[in-house]
Amino acid sequence: MNQDNDLPPAQPQDPAAPQEPAAPQEPFGTAVPDGDFSAYSTGPAVPGIPIDPAAIVGLEQELAELKARHAEVSDAYLRAKAEAENIRRRAEEDMSKARKFAVEAFAESLLPVKDSLEAAIALTNASNEQLLEGVHATLRQLTGALERNKVVPVSPPAGTKFDPHQHQAISMVPAEQEPNTVVAVLQKGYLINERVLRPALVTVAAPK
Questions:
Q1: Each residue of 80-137: pLDDT tens digit?
Q2: How far apart are CA 166 and CA 188, in angstroms?
Q3: By the 8 A CB rule, do 174 and 138 touch?
């Protein structure tokens, strides 16, 4: 059995009967006249939640305190930045002066050595013994000047294990000692502040 047959037949509409007017439809995107948004207002505060004037005052005070703190922090930052810039500038000036006058103390310590050599040359009637004594005295002056400037000799004794960082092998020679050890020093080396200024020239025992 068809259920559609159970439905009552549709009543025909009388064209002469009055029709209810349709509600006017505003076009989409219609601008609010004169910026009047009252029709879209959410109305007064939510009932039951009153606005506390004291709370508003407290928020305003807190905002004022935050602004003052921000100004204080900004001022401290600018001061710290300026101080850091001054420190950097002074450090650069000190480094420039250090590079420029680094040799000043060393040169000053060598001046007495030069004075002794000039005095020795000025002696026309000096004996060989006097000249030799003057040379030894001048050498002591030079050695003292070098030591004050952290310049020390490298002169390994025979039998010392060869150190490629401080020694330079000129040749390998047969010797009655352990292989790869220093046999003789041909020229002293020097360190300055524990850094190799010149390696010692040595001969090294050859393997047996």
A1: 999 999 999 999 999 888 888 878 888 999 999 999 999 988 888 888 898 899 999 9
A2: 10
A3: no
pLDDT per position as a tens digit, 5-18? 555 555 555 555 55
Q: Both tokens of residue 15? A: 């064209």
In one letter, which amino acid is 208? K
Confirm whether pTM is higher than 0.85. no
**Which residue's entry shows tokens 């508003």?**
56
* CA pseudo-torsion sign 13, 14, 19, 25: positive
Name the maximum alpha-carbon separation found in the chain: 157
State whether residue 52 is helix, strand or coil.
Answer: coil
Sorted by sequence, the CB contacts under 8 Å of residue 206 that are 6+ apart come out as 172, 173, 174, 175, 179
182-187 sheet: strands from edge to edge: 167-173, 200-205, 182-187
Output phi, psi for 129, to 5 deg: -65, -40
Closest CA to 174 of 149, 208, 128: 208
| Cα within 13 Å of Cα(96), Cβ side | 6
Type of residue found at 118: E
